[in-house]
């Protein structure tokens, strides 16, 4: 897994650079919203390590990446999430990517993973391995209650393991691909927000140790 550097080649932008664990270059590209971020070495890769701050109560906990905004196109990132030491019992290692993030994280779309669900013995938990939400009006509680099963799916996951995620956006549609699969594991045909340009955000949920590397964004030409 190659380390990313900041560059533009055609329409491809590599936005997350971690030249060395002691460098602040990568952190300078992040606007932190209810999260802490440090550079770290994790499982052979230089990465950004994110954890929520104590005042984080909801899902609007982001490290917003400064750089080109995205409306339609695709993004890829390597991520690894696991329950943090001492996390509450229902912690799942929640980790994902927000897109079309509006100023001050007031609104955004989010696709995320629950890594401990991927190989659970409980089939219902496995069915909740991936999740789409739209902040602030469509949290996971509402989608699960009003449209059970529509915005969640199964995919094979392991907590704390580097996992490649790819998201493809086109208007009101989003496709989530995991681990280089040719087919999406989750299809969303009715994104709740208007298809506007917005920032990309690295997201971790409650009780999560989250790591991110190699974020690349390809706007639609």
What is the N-to-C succession of helices and strands? EEEEEEEEEHEHEEEEEE
The CATH topology assignment is Jelly Rolls
| Average of the residue pLDDT scores | 89
Oligomer: single chain
Query: What is the fourth-level CATH superfamily?
Result: Exo-inulinase, domain 1
Provide a count of the helices.
Answer: 2
Distance between the ends: 27 Å
Instruction: Count up the domains.
Output: 1
CATH architecture: Sandwich
Query: What is the β-strand count?
Result: 16
CATH class reads Mainly Beta
Shape descriptor reads globular
Biggest sheet details: 9 strands, antiparallel
3D structure, described in words:
With 221 residues, this protein is mainly beta. It has one domain: Jelly Rolls. Helices cover 5% and strands 47% of the residues. The strands form 2 sheets. Strands 1, 2, 4, 5, 7, 12, 13, 14 and 16 form a 9-stranded antiparallel beta sheet that branches. A 7-stranded antiparallel beta sheet has the order 3-6-15-8-9-10-11. A hairpin with a 2-residue loop joins strand 1 and strand 2. The longest helix has 7 residues. The protein starts with 6 loop residues before the first strand and ends with a strand. The N terminus is likely disordered.
């Amino acid at each position: 897994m190659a380390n990313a550097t900041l560059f533009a080649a055609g329409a491809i932008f590599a936005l997350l650079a971690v030249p060395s664990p002691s460098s602040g270059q990568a952190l300078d590209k992040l606007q932190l919203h209810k999260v802490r971020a440090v550079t770290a070495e994790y499982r052979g890769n230089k990465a950004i390590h994110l954890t929520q701050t104590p005042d984080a109560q909801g899902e609007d906990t982001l490290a917003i990446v400064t750089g080109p905004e995205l409306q339609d196109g695709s993004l890829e990132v390597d991520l690894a999430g696991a329950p943090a030491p001492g996390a509450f019992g229902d912690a799942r290692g929640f980790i994902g990517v927000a897109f079309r993030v509006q100023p001050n994280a007031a609104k955004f779309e989010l696709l995320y993973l629950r890594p401990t669900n991927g190989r659970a013995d409980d089939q219902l938990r496995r069915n909740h391995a991936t999740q789409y939400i739209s902040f602030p009006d469509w949290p996971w509680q509402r989608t699960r209650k009003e449209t059970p099963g529509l915005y969640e799916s199964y995919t094979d996951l392991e907590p704390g393991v580097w996992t490649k995620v790819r998201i493809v956006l086109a208007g009101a549609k989003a496709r989530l691909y995991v681990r280089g699969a040719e087919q999406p594991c989750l299809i969303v045909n009715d994104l709740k927000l208007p298809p506007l340009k917005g920032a990309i955000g690295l997201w971790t949920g409650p009780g999560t140790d989250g790591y991110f590397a190699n974020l690349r964004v390809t706007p639609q030409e």
